[in-house]
Amino acid sequence: MFYVVLEFMNKIIMHQIGIIHSPYREKNDIPIQGRFKDNAEAWVELKEKYVKGLKDLDKFSHAIILYYFHKSDKETIEGKPFLEEVEHGIFAIRSPNRPNHIGFSVVKIKHIKENKLYFTQVDMIDGTPVLDIKPYVKYFDSRENVVSGWLDKHFKNGKIPDKNLIR
């Protein structure tokens, strides 16, 4: 059984609720962001005791999947992200080499069948442990006048800067 134990002042235990089955077997195969590569399909296979939790999720177009970067073998406080030659603080980048190795992705729901949630906009490696799934709600999750720090200079007019970077 996979679980995460975190200690600060209290102990936090998170249990794996499922696993991601992805076409990406190696870290270098994964696109930088799943929304850049919409043709790959993956699925979350939930443990049986969580299947009822999928009820009504099929009424949403997108979901947020929280997962554990189980292939990340280091922790850094600063890192050099794609598009940059300089380091930024770990909380200003999306590196998997985080203090708690927690990742999240917004995915496009294709369909749900039994204990499986099928989706596109995949950016997780095969075998990734799933910690939680939430519906993406445009009324709650979208923001106006967003400033994206150091990334804004790379995304002129909202365009992807270099298609070669998205794998």
TrEMBL record:
Signal sequence extent: none
Domain named TsaA-like: residues: 14-145
InterPro entries, per database record: TrmO-like_N, YaeB-like, YaeB-like_sf, YaeB_N_sf
A Pfam family reported for this protein in Swiss-Prot or TrEMBL: TrmO_N
Keyword annotations of the record: S-adenosyl-L-methionine
Record-linked PROSITE patterns: TSAA_2
Sequence similarity: Belongs to the tRNA methyltransferase O family.
Protein name in the entry: TsaA-like domain-containing protein
